[in-house]
Amino acid sequence: QVQLEESGGGLVQPGGSLTLSCAASGISVSGCALGWYRQVPGKQRELVGTISSGDRTNYADSVKGRATISRDNAKNTVYLQMNSLKPDDTAVYYCNVNLFGRIYWGQGTQVTVSS
Predict the structure, then answer these.
(1) Are strands 18-25 and 3-7 parallel, antiparallel or unpaired?
(2) Cα–Cα 20 to 30 A to 65, which of 43, 56, 58, 82?
(3) Low-confidence winner among 34-38, 72-76, 101-105 (lowest mean pLDDT)
(4) Residue 53 C-alpha from the chain's centroid
């Protein structure tokens, strides 16, 4: 069974940093392309960034230069590091994977940026 579980969210001050984790089971992240998304209540879920099976990364303009996606194959986990956090980064963050045409999502982790 494929499962993704996000963790690492919490309350941070503007300008601070946070690293989110997406632990996978039932799949090996080393062979997958994965994405990070975020959603604010009342708005559509938006793409934060992606990492390919070859570890190439792409980021939305809103986080470019402040976000880094990486992968630890030994831990079967994908990470999203966010720096210089802004109040507009407040959202529930989700990871996902497209596995042979089927989309899997985690339950999300809340990030709140506030002083």
Answers:
(1) antiparallel
(2) 43
(3) 101-105
(4) 15
Higher pLDDT, 61 or 99: 61
* pLDDT, position 5: 98
Query: Concatenated DSSP letters for the chain?
Result: --EEEEE--EEE-TT--EEEEEEEESS-GGG--EEEEEE-TTS--EEEEEE-TT--EEE-TTTTTTEEEEEETTTTEEEEEE-S--GGG-EEEEEEEEETTEEEE---EEEEE--
Residue with tokens 């303009």: 61
- For residue 21, give every residue at least 6 positions away whose Cβ sits within 8 Å of its Cβ, in sequence order, or none: 6, 7, 8, 77, 78, 79
Spatial contact of 90 and 40, defined as CB atoms under 8 Å apart: yes
Q: What tokens appear for 20 in the block?
A: 């989110």
**Sequence-separated (6 or more) residues with CB below 8 Å from residue 49:** 35, 36, 57, 58, 59, 60, 63, 67, 69, 80
